[in-house]
Amino acid sequence: MSLINRYWTPIFLSISLVMSSIVYADGVVVDKVYHPYVLPNEREVEWRLFSHRESNNNKLAQRLAYGQSVNENLMLEFYLVGERDSNNDFDIVSYELEARWMLTEQGEYWADWGLLFEIEKETEQKNWEVTSGILVEKEFGRTSLTLNAFMIYEWGKTLKSELETEFRLKYRYRYIEQFQPAIEVYLGEDYLGIGPAFMGLQRFNAQKQLKWEVGFITGMDSRSKGHVLRVAVEYEF
If pLDDT is split at 50, 70 and 90, which confidence band does 160 have? Predict the structure, then answer.
């Protein structure tokens, strides 16, 4: 009982606080579940694909990013975001600048904590979106639980100014570095999705490593329509 109180109670309290204050963000919120870690002198190139299929409609988006740590606790990353339009043409629709701040060293406290800040500008509509979030991860033997809670403020030419939130969860089994199955949960306005995910890590010499992730998320109620496929490949050097 003492172990349960020590490790699980703080996590359940964190989830409860997030859920009780959630206002839900617009649309589907399936994306990367962030870990709170930053490596010194880290540089990375990342590609993400997002495909949301609903009836005869298939929304496709991609992100290409370059990131670099500015010190041992802070990582900056710049994204180009592209989407396919109704004519099947693929265009850049927005730019993003993201900062990830590692608050605690891994294993220093009962859980590992970080913060995320992001600003996005749409190229055509001149809309803006600012995101801030809490990143939490806790290891339990060969499994780990990762929680992301985001607060989002958006405004612009075609957007109503409003404050929203999103919630993401990943429970992962570290079978081997190259293959780690997981369950992911995403929560947003008119959307609750859950599904399996798989990820892996291949290390090379020095700090070079290749990470990959694949997730397939399904809507779980009448508001949550369609299926979402997400893919991410990240090379760190």
Answer: confident
